[in-house]
What does this fold into?
Amino acid sequence: MQPNSDSLDRSDPEGAIAAAAKRCSNWGRWGADDVLGTLNFLTEDKRVEGASLVRRGASFSLSQPFDTDGPQKGWRRRTNPVHTMTDTGTDAERGVQGFPHGIGGADDVISMPLQCSTQWDGLGHIFDHGFAWNGRRAGDVVTSLGDSVTGIETTAALIAGRGVLLDVGRTIGTDGELPDGFAITAEHLEATIAAQGGSSRVGRGDLLLVRTGRLTRARRDIAEGRGWGDYAGGAAPGLSFTTADWLHGSEIAGIATDTWGFEVRPIEFDVAFQPLHQVAIPNMGLFIGEMWDLDALATDCAEDGRYDFWLTAAPLRVTGAVGAPVNPIAVK
It folds into this structure.
């Protein structure tokens, strides 16, 4: 059995992180030049399997909106998108656009951090002791010019296959939600698989979605006038550090949650910052998605009893980016 949260030795975070990084390392697994990490598990056969799951044609966008009312509050210079119109209907009516024969149009510009809403973390996003994915020196990968090795554009055609939803909030939580600070262990994940049934099996090449209910609570707070609060940077339920071995052993291609940071906050060590990220991205090569909207999909899965589906989740192809926005689409 994998270690659980209760058995975690909190007295030596540095040692625990180093040990997990060593156990879960995929460095060299796909050769010294690899830039795809766990996406190597998502083969053409896995895409065929995923496509075969489409039966009803029901589709779900798993993206939150990208707008000025979004969840960001400036943590680490992350702000909400700024959307500016450069041509409008008013301009067209007044004939100031300079086009002939009465044609007019609208155009716009958006400025935003690439990880301000629903997004993927790329393999150049997190380093471990100065090293990036596959043992490269961090400074040889990401410079002021961007990620010249594992930029998010390397994944543009690849993230499409069998998606699996584990609705831990509905299975383990109260009224479909987990409280802030709840550490989801491997035992919780396995219990959710058992409760949901065979369509929830998780294995090589799958794209795993974990719903905690945190976004559901944020929406309720907004509706009741309290705003987003700390949704994008505060306490949250999430994956326990002890799930590193489970994530590594399952050989999934990627994982996404409905929270801002994927792992539990506050973290399980007194002194550490995103320790599961530190193991998963630079050592395991695992792609992590954050702030995905899983609520409507979860409701549909609960109603029809099927928790796997075709999922396509290509990031915006920004050259050299270490993360990028995405509008994931699940089709059942």
Notes: Residues 151 and 256 are 19 Å apart (CA to CA). The first strand starts at residue 59 and ends at 61. Residues 13-23 form the longest helix (11 residues). The mean pLDDT is 94.
